[in-house]
Amino acid sequence: QVQLVESGGGLVQTGGSLRLSCATSGRLFNVYVVGWHRQAPGKQRELVAFRRRDESTFYADSVKGRFTISRDAATDTVYLQMDDLKPEDTAVYYCAAMDFGAGQWNSWGQGTQVTVSS
Fold first, then answer.
1. Does position 84 have pLDDT exceeding 90, yes or no?
2. Distance CA 91, CA 12 (A)
3. Averaged over 90-97, what is the pLDDT?
4. Residues 6+ apart with CB under 8 A from 36
5. Which of the residues 7, 43, 89, 106 has the least number of beta carbons within 10 Å of its own beta carbon?
6. What CA–CA distance (Å, rounded) separates 58 from 52?
7. Are 16 and 8 in contact (CB under 8 A)?
């Protein structure tokens, strides 16, 4: 089992930046992908970005060019740098991990709130 703890959410104005952190621990040797999802009020949870073990990345079209996912190997922390934030980015952001062979996100953090004011 992998433990994930998010931090870094908050309130920011349109055009501002935030950096979310996801501290990971536990059975990390079996993790294939770590990613960020978000869920806005009344909407389904959506995938925002992920980073595979081979360092390849994916970004949703809505955040491409504005968000960057990265990892600090020394601390096993995964970051989501969010720039040029928009009100539609307002959501609870969740860090998640997928083990090799799992086929689905099988570990989740508790979430951190991001609010972008217009």
1. yes
2. 12
3. 98
4. 20, 22, 47, 48, 49, 50, 69, 78, 80, 93, 94, 95, 96
5. 43
6. 9
7. no
End-to-end CA, the chain? 39
The single residue listed with the structure tokens 């869920």 is 39
Q: What is the pLDDT of residues 7-19, one digit of tens each?
A: 999 999 999 999 9
Task: Report the residue count for the chain.
Answer: 118
Sequence letter at residue 34: V
- The two tokens of residue 103 are 């086929």
Is 41 exposed, middle or buried (CB count within 10 Å of its CB: 0-12, 13-18, 19+)? exposed
